[in-house]
Design a protein that fits this description.
Length: 393
């Protein structure tokens, strides 16, 4: 038990990302644990931010976000997803996707409301549900036995939905697995949402980082879904500016108004000089967005081959920054956390154990899995692959 911490947050201590990042610094290891790039974003975006500093943009922006950015978000969603949102009432700028998700849960959930989602899951989801007084109803994704995507049991999703279920949380492209949910899978999940009159919160921050053979589809575009769905995205992953923490949430006006009520008492506003820069980024030509996916796919292939050469079976991701490995060939007891703590000494590399992305009762499902990030520059990624090769020597 953590002294003074409210009971609903017991168990949410210091994240494993902090532990592993500190381990990387202490040992001089390459950090492939936390998902942040080590190369800059596009100059067309960075230059706008530099120009905005020292101007009126340094002061509080409007609570919902600057009109320029909200308009750019709406235009961007229409351009890439063929969905129309009113920038004045259906778009809200947030302090990254994490705040958008937290504000949505705080505003929509009553104590005892149940939330169905897939695990492994981004770690803020469980904390957001807990802070809202909700109840988590996780459904496991299953890694393939060999090649192929992660899958789920449709009947397990049906079984997770009860009369207390209020919210379905989807994350596609999915962190940490790199799965892109297929049109058939999303049609099934959307059908359940309509059948049970569920609200849907969909996290799409990796929407542009999708690789050959896969395509991102927003659930909000499916029949019966727009009026019940909040779509979250952000600038961090698309423009290599994870520290700017500029995100947004789009949806029908009544749902966005509810989220705005909670959001205004969290950060209120953020990132004044970064908002015009993100607006400029969202208006970059299509070639930019296809180019970042192609570049990241090359980095994925480099790391995946290096992991396989090191004797680690890997599920090649369809999107995102991350690849998942099964450590049992080199860690016979299958303890992913122990593997990650020993990896700096064995190979001078840091990764993250996937067990932390599961609810406590399901942590055994990910005990033998470890996540590596490949959003690193050529020199760093090449050196990491060489170091990992030591395990196979």
């Amino acid at each position: 038990m953590t002294q003074h911490l409210a009971s609903r947050l017991q168990g949410f201590g210091t994240t494993v990302f902090a532990e592993m990042s500190a381990l990387a610094v202490a040992t001089g290891s390459i950090n492939l644990g936390q998902g942040f790039p080590d190369y800059p974003g596009p100059p067309e975006v960075l230059d706008v931010a530099r120009s905005a500093i020292g101007t009126a943009a340094d002061q509080y922006p409007p609570g919902p976000g600057t009109p320029e950015l909200r308009t750019a978000v709406a235009e961007h969603v229409r351009r890439f997803r063929d969905l129309s949102y009113d920038p004045d009432t259906e778009v809200l700028v947030t302090a990254g996707a994490t705040e958008a998700l937290a504000a949505a849960m705080l505003s929509l959930l009553e104590p005892g409301d149940e939330v169905v989602l897939f695990e492994p899951m981004y770690d803020s989801y469980g904390a957001g549900v807990a802070m809202s007084g909700g109840v988590l109803r996780p459904v496991p994704l299953h890694p393939p036995a060999g090649e192929g995507p992660w899958t789920f049991d449709p009947e397990a999703v049906r079984a997770a939905i009860t009369p207390r279920t209020k919210l379905l949380v989807l994350n596609t492209p999915h962190n940490p697995t790199g799965k892109v949910f297929t049109p058939d899978e999303l049609a099934f999940l959307s059908g359940l949402a309509v059948e049970h009159d569920l609200l849907v919160l969909t996290d799409e921050v990796y929407e542009h980082l999708v690789f050959s053979g896969a395509a991102h589809l927003s659930p909000a575009g499916l029949p019966g879904m727009r009026e019940r769905t909040l779509v979250v995205s952000s600038a961090g992953k698309t423009f290599n500016v994870t520290g700017w923490k500029v995100g947004w949430i789009c949806g029908p006006a009544p749902l966005v108004a509810a989220v705005r009520t909670a959001k205004q008492f969290l950060t209120y506003v953020n990132g004044g000089p970064f908002q015009p820069a993100v607006a400029a980024g969202l208006r970059l030509p299509d070639e930019y967005f296809t180019g970042i996916a192609r570049d990241l796919e090359y980095r994925r292939d480099t790391l995946v081959q290096g992991l396989r050469d090191a004797g680690l079976p890997v599920v090649s991701p369809e999107a995102t920054y991350f690849a998942t490995v099964d450590v049992r060939p080199v860690q016979p007891d299958g303890d992913g956390l122990a593997f990650c703590r020993a990896l700096p000494g064995r190979a001078g590399v840091v990764a993250v154990p996937s067990g932390v992305f599961y609810a406590p009762q399901d942590a055994h499902l990910g005990r033998h899995l470890v996540r590596f990030a490949f959003c690193k520059g050529d020199a760093v990624l090449g050196e990491a692959v060489q170091r990992l090769g030591r395990m196979a020597a």
